[in-house]
């Protein structure tokens, strides 16, 4: 019998028939689903920028590790400056500042009842540790509350980091007070 006699048979060799059957629908369904999934995955993570890429995941993890390392160390100028570069801590500090500090220091730190925090002049010192000390212990007699006991050490650190980002941004507001500190 030759290959062309029966429909659906491509070759016959040694009595073995090679058929040309339709692939099963479940199999085709699986094939096209994986192709579609692969395309969607590639688009979501590589093209659209919506899904976090591996670099973004790595950076977030590295920043978290740096934060954990910093929170195990005593506060210092170095740990505060490192925190200032960590966007998540600065965001946290900013949120706290808006809630707790803006009423006296203005939304942008431009000063209101309390001094302008964006200029180069400081009543109690403009180094990272000096700012941290003022925020944590306050200047109670002059109306600046002590924040460490109400907010805790971690929040005070992130607020100090945020205040460091305001320093020297020179937002027009309350006139400078205190000593010039570069
Ligand atoms: C009730 C009003 C009030 C609130 C709320 C307040 N402050 Fe103050 N703050 C002041 C006053 C008043 C001073 C000036 C103290 C002085 O004259 O010695 C001051 C001073 C400071 C200074 C020192 C500025 C300098 O020139 O040395 C820093 C830093 C500061 N505040 C940060 C903060 C932060 C951060 C918060 C929120 C966690 C905050 N303050 C909330 C009133 C306030």
Which structural class best describes the helix and strand composition?
mainly alpha
- The CATH architecture of the largest domain is Orthogonal Bundle
How would you write the strand order of the largest sheet? 1-2
Average residue-wise pLDDT: 90
Q: Which CATH first-tier class of the largest domain would you pick?
A: Mainly Alpha
| Low-pLDDT ranges | none
Q: How many H/I helical runs?
A: 8
For the secondary structure, the number of strands is 4
- Using the coordinates shown, work out and report the CATH topology of the largest domain: Cytochrome Bc1 Complex, Chain D, domain 2
Q: Give the biggest beta sheet.
A: 2 strands, antiparallel
Bound molecules: heme C
The CATH homologous superfamily of the largest domain corresponds to: Cytochrome c-like domain
Characterise the protein shown here.
- The protein folds into two domains: 9-47, no CATH class; 54-180, Cytochrome c-like domain (Cytochrome Bc1 Complex, Chain D, domain 2).
- The chain contains eight helices and four strands.
- The protein is mainly alpha-helical.
- The radius of gyration is 32 Å and the shape is rod-shaped.
- The strands form two sheets. It has a two-stranded antiparallel ribbon with strand order 1-2. It has a two-stranded antiparallel sheet with strand order 3-4.
- The mean pLDDT is 90.
- Bound molecules: heme C (HEC).
Fold blueprint:
Layout: E1 9-13, E2 16-19, H1 25-47, H2 54-71, H3 77-84, H4 87-100, H5 102-105, E3 121-122, H6 128-137, H7 148-151, H8 153-166, E4 179-180
Antiparallel strand pairs: 1-2, 3-4
This protein binds heme C (HEC).
């Amino acid at each position: 019998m030759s290959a062309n006699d029966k429909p659906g048979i491509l070759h016959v060799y040694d009595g073995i028939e090679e058929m040309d059957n339709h692939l099963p629908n479940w199999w085709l369904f699986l094939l096209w689903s994986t192709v579609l999934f692969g395309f969607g995955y590639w688009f979501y993570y590589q093209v659209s920028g919506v899904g976090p890429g591996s670099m973004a995941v790595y950076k977030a993890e590295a920043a978290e590790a740096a934060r954990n390392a910093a929170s195990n160390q005593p506060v210092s100028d170095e740990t505060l400056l490192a925190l200032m570069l960590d966007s998540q801590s600065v965001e946290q500090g900013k949120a706290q500042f808006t809630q707790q500090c803006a009423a006296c220091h203005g939304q942008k730190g431009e000063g209101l009842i309390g001094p302008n925090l964006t200029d180069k002049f400081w009543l109690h010192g403009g180094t990272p540790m000096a700012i941290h000390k003022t925020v944590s212990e306050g200047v109670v007699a002059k109306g600046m509350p002590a924040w460490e006991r109400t907010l805790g050490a971690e929040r005070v650190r992130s607020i100090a980091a945020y205040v460091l980002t305001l320093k020297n941004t020179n937002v027009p507001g309350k006139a400078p007070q205190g000593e010039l500190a570069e």
